[in-house]
Amino acid sequence: EVAREIQLAMLPRGTFSTRDALISGATRPANTVGGDFYDVLPLPDGRVVVTLGDVAGKGSPAALLMALLLAVLRTLVEEHLEAAALVERLNVQICRHSPATRFITLFYALYSPGTGALTYVNAGQNPPFIRRADGRIERLPATGVALGMFEKSRFVEGSTAVMPGDTLVLYSDGITEAEDPGGRPFEETGLEAIIAAHVADPPAELGARVLKAVEAHAKSSRFVDDLTILILQRAPAQAGPAT
């Protein structure tokens, strides 16, 4: 329980607010501690780091690697590196300081308030998606392999934009792979349906709804994998004055 308190204290709490967006995350470990993580870090140039990842495995070994990765990542963020360069440096450190049998999937992005520009690297993580204001779904696929596999891995940056009224959803595979008693997974469609039904809710409430929906689907509060979600919700465009 003490380890759980320490681990949760390492993660952002509450809702982070930029001038045009709200960002909030939630996690529920399968065991007392887990290997999922997320972070929200403001940069001096006004951009905001949003990241979510999943250490292979569960319990204390995964939690120790999660703590290592967060510590290294936060140090590298202070060097003001762009996304691909940071993830490549991070991968080298993970390869050198973690067991060869372990790997970490990671989505790392830089969000620019005002323009909504999003530059990202997806290192083997479940593709996050942007639910556009008109209901369309845009997925952000992998741009490289998981961390900890090859020290000389190279990563490609992707780019898109979170426009007014859009919602960016990052999640771990524990959510989409959670099964009901009949063995049917929650899947991406289940996640998308909850987001669509409650997209007007603030991100903290929306994330809580997702976790409750997964629990209802599984008909259990015990899971075989960690559940983690991070939501960035950009405010709708302001209507102009009536003419």
Can you offer a commentary on this structure?
- By secondary structure, the chain is α+β, with helices and mostly antiparallel strands.
- The chain has six helices and eleven strands.
- It has helices at 2-9, 59-77, 83-97, 173-176, 187-197, 203-218; strands at residues 15-17, 21-28, 36-42, 48-55, 104-111, 117-123, 129-131, 137-139, 158-161, 167-171, 227-234.
- Strands 1-2-11-10-7-8 form a six-stranded antiparallel β-sheet. Strands 3-4-5-6-9 form a five-stranded antiparallel β-sheet, with helices on one face.
- Helix 2 (59-77) crosses helix 3.
- The longest helix is centred in the N-terminal third of the chain and has 19 residues, at 59-77.
- The chain is globular and about 45 Å long.
- It starts with a helix and ends in a 9-residue tail after the last strand.
- The mean pLDDT is 92.
Content of β-strand: 25-35%
Average pLDDT, rounded to a whole number, is 92
Structural class: alpha+beta
Which segments are poorly predicted (pLDDT under 50) over 5 or more consecutive residues?
none
Structure annotation, total helices: 6
Distance between the termini: 60 Å
The best one-word shape is globular
Amount of helix: 25-40%
What does the radius of gyration come to? 17 Å
The side-by-side strand order for the widest beta sheet comes to 1-2-11-10-7-8
- What is the H/E order? HEEEEHHEEEEEEHHHE
